[in-house]
């Protein structure tokens, strides 16, 4: 009886997310394992602005860098101390083209990754679901992870994320994968 109840709860939980049109998260390690085992059936997209990638790091495990938000260097938001980030108007179309380039359709698994998972990873995955893609997930804690809460390194992004799980990354960008408008 317990396994049946567990299965029903899992089914209901997944259905709830599908009905709510919200993407589910994966850990960096789960993503790495999926890409290693099923890479030809998955599209793994780094959704960060390429300038951010240039300064923070990159993993060549991704299929493509397609930014969800692009920094608008003409709009500085003084109250937030940063440039405005505008949605890339070509985001959904570029993801669809990347799927086609791999011989995949809009029902293939797409995994998005940003710096932390929350500001662009999840929103980009939800955006794709809203635009007709049916199987989209994002990496929880993204590429760089969360900031430490205490100690000498408080605030530094050393807690989790792709980099901190010891997965492959470097500062060298792959010009064939990085977004170049």
From TrEMBL:
UniProt-recorded name of the protein: Sulfurtransferase
Keywords: Signal
InterPro entries cross-referenced by the UniProt entry: Rhodanese-like_dom
Superkingdom of origin organism: Bacteria
Isomerase is among the record's keywords: no
PROSITE patterns referenced in this protein's UniProt entry, alphabetically: RHODANESE_3
Secretion signal span: 1-20
Residues of the Rhodanese domain: 95-155
